[in-house]
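Researcher: I've got a protein sequence and the SMILES for zinc ion. Could you write out the 3D structure of the bound complex as structure tokens? I'd like something to compare against our soaking experiments later this week.
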Amino acid sequence: MTERAAEAFLNMVAGRQGHFQLESGHHGELWLDLDALLTQPRRIAPWVAELTDAIRPHDVEGVCGPLIGGAFLAQASAALLDVEFAFTERVMPAVAGGLYPARYRLPPAFAPRVRGRRIAIVDDVMSAGSAARGTYEELRAHEAVPTVVGALLVLGSTGADFFAQHSVAVEAVARRPYRLWLPTACPLCDSGVPLEAVSQTAADVR
Ligand SMILES: [Zn+2]
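Model: Sure. Here is the predicted complex with zinc ion in place.
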């Protein structure tokens, strides 16, 4: 079921094999046009409902998603759960070096509304988990209680491992193996495959 669900999901987004610089700073072999998801809300509604059902037992008081894709899913999930919604916005440093250079900022209006509350973080796809991690750190900085991370698709274990280490549950509609590498240990770099930097665009694998 899960494997088939992953394939169905990948058929919905424009997956492309190659050599890509991820927002986290890792190099990866798959790029997904996640913004394509947003154009068909009815088509992804069953996925959002399934993810929301997985989040429900965690008894959250709000759902927060990183812009762009995650925020739209978080809003839909919050409506289904009848809880509050919030989003975070990405802030990239002028010079992005090292791993996880992106920061995610909670608009000031949301800060008092998340304080002390159990919050679900929702994103479309999590691989290295840059957006989910950034949102987690921002929520913690505002004294919220990130309780569960939900993604339609979890690729590999890099992002999920981070949350396991912080005792935050990870829920997914589908999971699929995914290879990513540190830039210094990337076999695609070693083979001379040109690197595409897609992380500065709106659509990326996080
Ligand atoms: Zn590489």
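Model: The helical segments are 2-12, 35-38, 41-55, 69-81, 111-114, 130-141, 158-165, 187-190. The radius of gyration is 16 Å.
Researcher: Great, I'll pass this along to the crystallography team.
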